[in-house]
Design a protein that fits this description.
CATH superfamily: Aldolase class I
CATH topology: TIM Barrel
Largest sheet: 8 strands, parallel, barrel
Number of strands: 10
Radius of gyration: 18 Å
CATH class: Alpha Beta
CATH architecture: Alpha-Beta Barrel
Structural class: alpha/beta
Helix content: 40-55%
Bound molecules: zinc ion
Strand content: 15-25%
Shape: globular
Number of domains: 1
Low-confidence stretches: none
Order of helices and strands: HEHEHEHEHEEHEEHEHEHH
Distance between the termini: 20 Å
Number of helices: 10
Length: 284
């Protein structure tokens, strides 16, 4: 069942758990994510389709696919979310296509411009019943990052600016920068839970952690205690499934049929997504 993003995140905020937001860009990635959540007891879940995957699939196709797969799991809450988008036209197209939420990413812009643009997106999206995530601060790029730019630098989110931004825009969820990176970590993740705590006290709305790939369970738990209700995982899904594919092809006497490889890929996505779901807390 397709579900409202804002309600899903507020339930998580009040219940002290996080909703997994997993990137999908093909039938097999969507199916693997939904199966993992179904087997975990119909956890609420976000299927995130990044604007950069438009060459893989159109917005209308992504919506039709999630809606159809969702019918096979009527007891599960699924939200189709547009991930990282700077393009106003694509955001409007996603709203029209039926997406439940959109992320406007103005994090590289000056504060006032990010605020102005986010407020504009909120006005339009909210009029259509669609929720909005925005970002303040900037994540650095790690290994194998498929989001942002390789030159992205870390700028921590300022708690006071976050409060001003939320009050002025009416945004439903805010992505923060507290030491996570897009991609895989080159060393041990250094997440500033102290900064997150201050942001949470000032923001008082659901917060989003990008760069979930490779974050240890204890750090995830601390983040959830301090307002994180949505955790994005992209790179690890791709790296895990890509390595498994390589192993299978190297070990095979003859190349398996593409349909067999596609089913294997679904299982690989399911496996890595299941690991993260188990980190994100109980829904009880
Ligand atoms: Zn991100």
């Amino acid at each position: 069942m397709l579900t409202n993003f804002k309600e899903m995140l507020w339930d998580a905020y009040k219940g002290h758990y996080a909703v997994g937001s997993f990137n999908a860009y093909s039938y097999d990635t969507f199916k693997g994510i939904i199966e993992a959540n179904r087997k975990a007891g119909n956890r609420p879940t976000i299927a995130a389709f990044g604007a950069k995957y438009l060459s893989n699939m159109s917005l209308d196709d992504a919506f039709a696919m999630v809606e159809s797969i969702g019918k096979s799991a009527p007891d599960m809450q699924i939200c189709l979310h547009l991930d990282h988008c700077k393009d106003f036209d694509i955001i409007c197209q996603a709203i029209r296509a039926g997406f439940g939420s959109v992320m406007y990413d103005g994090s590289a812009l000056p504060f006032e411009e990010n605020l102005k643009n986010t407020a504009r997106v909120c006005e339009i999206a909210h009029a259509c019943g669609v929720s909005v995530e925005a970002e303040l601060g900037s994540l650095a790029a790690g290994q194998y990052s498929h989001e942002g730019e390789a030159t992205d630098e870390e700028i921590y989110t300022d708690p006071e600016k976050a409060a001003e931004f939320i009050a002025s825009t009416g945004v439903d969820a805010l992505a923060v920068s507290v030491g996570t990176v897009h991609g895989l970590y080159k060393g041990t993740p250094k997440v500033r839970v102290d900064i997150l705590q201050k942001i949470n006290e000032a923001a008082k709305i659901p917060l989003v952690l990008h760069g979930g790939s490779g974050i240890p369970e204890d750090i995830i738990s601390s983040c959830i205690k301090n307002g994180i209700t949505k955790i994005n995982v992209n790179t690890e899904i791709s790296v895990f499934a890509g390595n498994k594919l390589k192993e299978r092809l190297m070990a095979a006497d003859k190349i398996p049929h593409l349909s067999v490889l596609a089913l294997d890929q679904q299982k690989d996505v399911e496996e890595v997504v299941s690991k993260y779901i188990s980190f994100f807390g109980a829904t009880d």
